[in-house]
Amino acid sequence: MNSKPTISVVIPAYNAAHYLTDTIHSVLAQSYTDWELLIINDGSTDTTESVVNRYCQQDGRIQLVTKENGGVSSSRNLGATLAKGELIAFLDADDKWLPNKLAVHAEYMHSHPEVGVSFARVELMNSDGSSMNKLTSNQLTQLQPQEFLYSNPTVTTSNVVIRRDLFHKMQGFDQTINHSEDMELLFRIASCSDFKIEGINQTLVQYRIHNTGLSSTLKNMEDGWKKMLEKARQLHPDLVSKHYASAYASQLQYLARQTLRLGLPPELGVDFVNRAFQADWGLMIRQRRSMLIAITIYATYFVSRLSANPVMKSLVK
Question: Which of 163, 195, 231, 314 has the smallest count of CB within 10 Å of its CB?
Answer without folding.
Answer: 314
